[in-house]
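Quiz preparation item.
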């Protein structure tokens, strides 16, 4: 859905006075959530939602030193440079077409896809979708370009690759591969502690060409979304990222050169598998089917108000079908509501 109300641009402008994190590392989910709300016909709820979320917003950290085209490597992965990175990308996006900037930086950032609990790539996926569906077309709006700068800046500042991983037995499908992901030995503590324990993943996701890579990426998003219905109870908030992170990559593909689609699939699989290893329980749990329509399911998520629930339901509607809708309803049930 293309936003013709102006609400999305208003919301993004309102949010760009805030940083991407609070309390030192917790992610600001508002730009992603409001984009999903507007996309699914809930523009009228956006400013009320932001008013409720306002106490979770903090000012951006102070700048340290400008990031430059020649010296960017020394700033990569330094969270103290979030504002420096955002300003760098704002300059880049002023001087060059956004697709050219994205194409240059996507392969540089992709190895750090799991950084920030995958939130930077998810925010980037939402930002790319806003630009691809911009009512201005090629004359993309200032707030949407600024949102891409904030997203890429966050990703660059939090960039951190996964540890080296050994290959396990190959799996025939994405669903089988997720089932075969071994859990980390200590499923407790924060995500950085958990990801540091990763040692091996099943082999899955080889693709001989870009079109196959795109199809397998869509398969992965669907499998992770479906799996939430049975395994989301293990950690209802964090396990949504096993689906929303690869879906962010899928959303970005139309804006990327086709040569980047195959490596994008590999990175998306690593992110989804990492979240699964870090949080998924050993046993599946039962779930109930739903008779709700997609519009009714999203309306329920919007009324619930939890940011992760809104974003996961957005992904579930991309996947479509009864099981994806049941998984979305399950996320409403499992996550604490923002509005009471």
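Solution:
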């Amino acid at each position: 859905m293309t936003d013709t109300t102006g609400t999305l641009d208003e919301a993004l402008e309102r949010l760009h006075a805030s940083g991407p994190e609070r309390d030192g590392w917790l992610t600001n989910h508002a730009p992603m959530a409001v984009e999903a709300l507007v996309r699914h016909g809930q523009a009228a709820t956006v400013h009320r939602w932001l008013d409720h979320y306002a106490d979770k917003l903090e000012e951006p950290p102070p700048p340290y030193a400008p990031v430059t085209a020649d010296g960017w490597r020394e700033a990569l992965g330094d969270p103290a440079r979030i504002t420096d990175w955002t300003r760098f990308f704002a300059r880049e996006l002023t001087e060059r077409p956004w697709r050219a900037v994205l194409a240059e930086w996507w392969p540089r950032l992709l190895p750090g896809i799991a950084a920030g609990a995958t939130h930077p790539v998810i925010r980037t996926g939402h930002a790319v979708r806003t630009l691809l569906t911009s009512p201005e077309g090629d004359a993309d709006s200032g707030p949407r370009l600024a949102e891409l700068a904030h997203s890429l800046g966050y990703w660059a500042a939090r960039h951190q690759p996964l540890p080296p991983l050994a290959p396990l037995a190959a799996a025939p499908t994405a669903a089988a591969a997720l089932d075969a992901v071994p859990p980390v030995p200590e499923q407790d503590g924060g995500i950085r502690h958990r990801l540091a324990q990763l040692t091996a993943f099943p082999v899955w996701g080889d693709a001989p060409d870009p079109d196959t890579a795109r199809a397998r990426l869509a398969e992965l998003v669907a499998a992770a979304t479906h799996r939430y219905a049975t395994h989301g109870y293990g950690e209802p908030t964090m396990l949504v990222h096993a689906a929303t992170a690869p879906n962010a990559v899928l959303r970005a593909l139309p804006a990327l050169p086709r040569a980047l689609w195959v490596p994008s699939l590999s990175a998306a699989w690593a992110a989804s598998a990492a979240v699964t290893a870090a949080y998924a329980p050993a046993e599946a749990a039962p779930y109930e089917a739903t008779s709700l329509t997609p519009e009714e399911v999203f309306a329920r998520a919007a009324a619930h108000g939890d940011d992760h629930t809104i974003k996961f339901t957005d992904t579930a509607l991309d996947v479509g079908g009864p099981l994806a809708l049941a998984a979305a309803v399950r996320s409403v049930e499992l996550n604490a509501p923002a509005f009471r």
